Amino acid sequence: MQISVVIPLLNEEQSLAELYDWIAKVLRSNSFSYEIIFIDDGSTDGSWNTIEALSKNDQSVKGIRFNRNYGKSQALHAGFLKAQGDVVITMDADLQDNPEEIPELYDMIVKEGYDLVSGWKKKRYDNVITKNLPSKVFNAAARKTSGVKLHDFNCGLKAYRKEVIKNIDVYGEMHRYIPVLAKNAGYYKITEKEVQHQARKYGNTKFGINRFIHGFLDLISIWFLSKFGRRPMHLFGALGVLMFIIGFIAAGWIGFSKLYKLYHGIPNTLVAQNPWFYISLTVMIIGTQFFLAGFLGELILRSKRDKERYLIKKTTYNL
Ligand code: UDP
Ligand code: MG
């Protein structure tokens, strides 16, 4: 199979049939072998009914339904697990991304040898104040912190070599930063392509004002990820060990010199009266806590990562 189109969606019933027709038309007229995977991220409208109906008419349509809303990153994760095509295309369900870009994206992966091609909505049809301006700031910050030179991290339309999506783990809220995850996993041939973008035709954006907060937290994670690879809590562990050693040496030195002076009858204040002794002990204790915090983080990460992070309620195919 040449192409898997992966589409995460939440309450997009008005767009789905139109989107499917458009994608299928483009893929068939280019005679691609393909599958279209819809991941219903807990919709409460008629989206799932539409997906079921589409999959009955066309074998290449596959639907996955979560038992509740888990977020776009989790939906992409489920789609990536299922995808079988050599090239995996992700796109939003709201008709803002243009399926006619797919053939060129496919060629960039297969013929030009890129691992990942990210869409760039150079001309963007969203609200300037709530979307375009903040995303300019975030993109600039993301470029700086991650070293991945993209103009538009958040674009839903992206193309991947299959190997890439099978070897990265899209967790938390990381869907905006998959290129950074790919780079960290050793896929360096990453580029962008200017893509056409339309205004949302039906319904409303699912990412409101809290995208600012999420975006900010994302940025911090990205900075950590790029600096400390896949193990950000090693920073705490290392800092903890360092503090413990400094505190230990300082307290030891103070204690030793006091004892030495006491033994040789040199006049000196008692250890118990030296504030630096207590400061050293405190540094040791804080160091131990930092180390334990890092250790706990590591434990949580290890035990959580490998488990399924969402519940699949239904699929249109046999699991
Ligand atoms: N989406 C999703 N789960 C969510 C929120 C959004 O699967 O919790 C889907 C949504 O249905 C759409 C895509 O993610 O297909 C992008 O969402 P949206 O268009 O609201 O984002 P925007 O274009 O405003 O950034
Ligand atoms: Mg949209």
TrEMBL record:
Record InterPro entries:
Glyco_trans_2-like, Glycosyltransferase_2, Nucleotide-diphossugar_trans
A Pfam family that this protein carries is Glycos_transf_2
EC number(s) on file:
2.4.-.-
Give UniProt keywords alphabetically. Answer: Cell membrane, Glycosyltransferase, Lipopolysaccharide biosynthesis, Membrane, Transferase, Transmembrane, Transmembrane helix
State the protein's name.
Glycosyltransferase
Q: Which GO terms describe its molecular function?
A: glycosyltransferase activity
Q: Which residues form the Glycosyltransferase 2-like domain?
A: 4-168
Transmembrane region(s)? 235-256, 276-301
Origin superkingdom = Bacteria
Q: Give the enzyme class.
A: transferase
